[in-house]
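[scheduler] slot 2 assigned
[scheduler] job type: sequence-to-structure, two independent chains
[scheduler] chain ordering preserved from manifest
[runner] begin chain α
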Amino acid sequence: MTRNILTLSIVFLMATGLTATAQAACVAEYKAKRDNPLELYYNVAQISGPCTKANARAQLQAQLARQGLTLLKVLSVRNK
């Protein structure tokens, strides 16, 4: 009986950990600029969807353009 409870506890902890990992937020580090006068920006932003540089680039270009900024480079992406 004790062995069954221990096994169920381990399975529960593993399932909970996998769920938390799957829902981890993705954060992208990037550089951007604004012209006239030239202003350079370094920032981080939360990204939805796959945690890849390509996905971050697509999302950030649109988001930054609305603010009058041009994305220069996505430096890194990582799960938060």
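[runner] end chain α
[runner] begin chain β
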Amino acid sequence: MDKYKYLRTAAVLRDLLGGTDNIASLTHCVTRLRLTLTDRARVDDTALRDHPAVLGVLERDTFQIVVGPAAVAQLTAALAQFLADA
């Protein structure tokens, strides 16, 4: 098992979301990353939706990326680490 898989995926997602400074808050539910973005226009929608880890994108009260139950906690932790390091 590749222990850096989720870290690499989170790095790509971070960039597609416009960078760490564009992510105001991050949490998750059972299957989705839930984010509050600073500037929605900075998101690369096409590349984000085309990424193999992304099962879907929803916009409700938060910007939501469906990644599935097997990956959501690990991706949230990896993204949170990027935010903490910024």
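[runner] end chain β
[qc] chain β: The first strand starts at residue 23 and ends at 28.
[scheduler] slot 2 released
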